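Example: UBX domain-containing protein.
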Amino acid sequence: MSKRRFDDTVDNGISNPWERKRFRALEKRLQGLRIDPLDASNVASTSQASGDSPSPERRLSIALRYPDGKRQIAELEVDTKVERLFQIIHAHGVSPSMVVLIKQFPKTVISLEDSQKTLAELGITTSEALFVEEK
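Written out as structure tokens, the predicted fold is:
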């Protein structure tokens, strides 16, 4: 019996096996950008590096919705720079210079010029859905 990974059991909402394979390849590329919440060794090393324990109110999930209808979830902290979101978008195969991020309420347009601001500075302090739209 083979050991199943967590994302195999929930299958991330992707039923097409080719899309699932593509999603896993993207996940591997983004491994350094996201901490797996089920991996205790990552949590321990993060808390030791920062000197404090990670608090749940500092973590948030950003759902990126792409123009082609695909969706991606990024687990980030509120003090993460927007540049990280554009890196994730670029890893998805979309050029960051050709898109803007739209926050629904209050309606906010986030562009590449905002890349050095933190999510908190842009008013993103809770889990949020951001729409990736072409300029």
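Residues 4-11, 34-51 have pLDDT under 50 and may be disordered.
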